[in-house]
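Bit of a strange request maybe. I'm writing a small parser for structure token strings and I need a real example to test against, not something I typed by hand. Could someone generate the tokens for this chain?
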Amino acid sequence: MSHRQLLNRSAGPRSLLSLLRPSLTRFYSSSSSVTSKDSAEEVAAEELPVTFVEDDGLEAEREARIQAARNKSRLLPQHRNMLHNTLPYEQSQSWIHETVKYKRMMVGRYGLDGSKVDPRICFPTKQEALERSEYEKVAFPHTLQEMMAVNRKAKQDKIAKIRTREEEIAKKMEKLDQWTADLNARIAKKEADARAAKERKDRLVEEVRRHFGFKIDPRDERFQEMLAQKEKEDRKKVKEAKRAEKEVKMMEKLKKKTANLEKDAAKEDDVDEDKK
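Reply from user aminoacidic:
Good idea to test on real output. This should exercise your parser:
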């Protein structure tokens, strides 16, 4: 019988509810049984121990994703390793990484464990030790004692040179007053000579003007000729005066020398007389 027939046959709501009650009872009982079954399974699952399936590939991939997410600096792997004070490369990337110099540098920087390098590479080979010994013999031929002696002598020579220089400076400082006086005397002499030359020139100009007996332009040829003649005569007079002064000095020297010779001769005569 269909639901429409049941609804048509029903006299009222009470009769309809009585007809639908068995179906609703079966529906709710089935749903409650399913819900109770699911809850029972959840309780059983909570009571059971949690187990994980070990998969190395998935774990490594998961760890790689985590590390990639952590790396916010965007540095290259080798640079990030250097920042964390670890070996930049796990495997050699260039021929430089296989050189002895590079490996020794890695040992010195990251230690024996961090560098993953055989520590025996840090020690020189027999050939290297021989070459180093020959180089030291050529570069450093002297022993330590000899170099110390050379250094000591160099210091002593330097100190002696400084002392000599200081003594020379002290001696020159003692003569400083005399040098200053001599310099002032030379300056005064030059100034006196300049004044004398100017006075002589003025005197000659005045003599030329008195010679003509009237006012004449100094640029006149007659004035220039007379001035040149007066200068020539004046130079001749100065020269003769110097010659006369020189002769006087020579005569004085001869007189002194003659007197000294006479004294020496008199002393020799006295000695000869005493010997007799």
